[in-house]
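User: Assemble these into one structure.

Assistant: Restating your components, then the assembled model:
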Amino acid sequence: MTRTSEILPRIDDCDCTPSVQHLFRRHYLLQSPMYYIRWLYAVLYSLYLLFVLRAPTDTDIVGYIENTTMAMLIRPATDGKSGEYEVTVYDCKLCASGGHKLKNMSLRYKTGKNGVQVLRFTRNGVEVSDRSQIFSTIYFYHIHSMHTKSHLFSNSLVRHIVDNDVKALQESSYTSIPLHYVLLHSSLSVLEWDGNMSRYFRYGGACIRESVVEESRNMSAMEGHQAVHSWKSHGKDSFAGKLLRSRLALQVVVERHGIAPKLLDPLFNHTIVHSVDHHGSSEWSRVRFSLHPWDKDCSTYQAFNTSVFRVLITQPNLNPLAPNTLRSINKPFYQDLYRELKNIDPQMAGVVTASVMY
Ligand SMILES: *[C@@H]1O[C@H](CO)[C@@H](O)[C@H](O)[C@H]1NC(C)=O
Ligand SMILES: *[C@@H]1O[C@H](CO)[C@@H](O)[C@H](O)[C@H]1NC(C)=O
Ligand SMILES: *[C@@H]1O[C@H](CO)[C@@H](O)[C@H](O)[C@H]1NC(C)=O
Ligand SMILES: *[C@@H]1O[C@H](CO)[C@@H](O)[C@H](O)[C@H]1NC(C)=O
Ligand SMILES: *[C@@H]1O[C@H](CO)[C@@H](O)[C@H](O)[C@H]1NC(C)=O
Ligand SMILES: *[C@@H]1O[C@H](CO)[C@@H](O)[C@H](O)[C@H]1NC(C)=O
């Protein structure tokens, strides 16, 4: 058996082994310069954002959840009250700087004619009512746990494509492994390492690198949380509904092009889920909150810090000369998938990339 016989969720399998050296070269040449350009843009844009940022409302909190992969955690309230929903995380391993641990959290909210209302939010069993802290906690969990799950299969999938020379999927091998390598091992990473920040730009989030890897080992938060559930409670045009329809579209295209069925779910995460999740998350760029979920308030400097991080990390960052979006790749598999996705949502189809690029 070769290592590529199964596609496994392994975020830390990102070393530059001989067969993927060309992908590291391509990444350093085409994708990594974007980080420096983006850094300048992030600083300037964040200065502008300081004038338009506003405190998060209940609508922002629920909107964020409903339009990102957090939607997969939405359940109708356990006591069956109609129009009331819960999002509960039981056993989280994420740590923030300053010795803070996010062990669990639970949000209960109501939707109805009068808009949405957050009824209750608890973190580590303690009720939190400050909307900025709620938003910050959800953002923290989303990007470091839920969103990271869309990255998990990528290393293994890329190694499979390279080792088996799957020509139809060549564009899906770009950047992902080097990106994970930089995030987990380089001093340029935006994640804290032993509580240390990037040596160069000193930007970065509040989450500790080791805890991201530990949290990523447990996929059980996804079990039974298939998009089907949210599709039923939110309808076919919700984020979750569109994800489910995209998966069906991908399944048809994978069959049509004779791609091994075992690549379906990893490809789904690697292409569609990953990019539309970034896109959904970056819609809330005007919300003012501190990146550290335990910060009591959000100073101007913290708001700026948050914006820089969000522009750098959450907003899609592609080299315009080599964007690797489906629409830009003139090859049968990607064009076919792009056409199918356009029927579901043209805007969504436009942002989908062939691999985890940012
Ligand atoms: C959440 O974490 C707190 C603190 O560790 C604990 O006391 C509480 O029982 C936990 N709640 C759930 C639902 O697991
Ligand atoms: C983090 O910073 C401390 C103090 O500056 C240093 O001793 C330690 O080696 C650093 N850790 C890492 C992993 O770079
Ligand atoms: C940005 O915020 C994070 C989280 O609070 C913090 O760890 C980091 O040091 C801040 N960055 C700068 C440059 O102050
Ligand atoms: C994984 O997470 C689930 C809850 O999401 C928890 O019940 C289980 O104990 C965790 N498993 C490990 C090995 O930590
Ligand atoms: C977020 O999702 C909800 C419900 O699915 C939708 O009504 C709303 O328009 C979305 N908001 C944005 C900004 O996309
Ligand atoms: C990733 O794929 C797995 C199955 O391979 C699936 O259970 C999971 O829901 C996917 N992750 C996301 C974030 O959609």
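DSSP finds twelve helices and seven strands in the chain.
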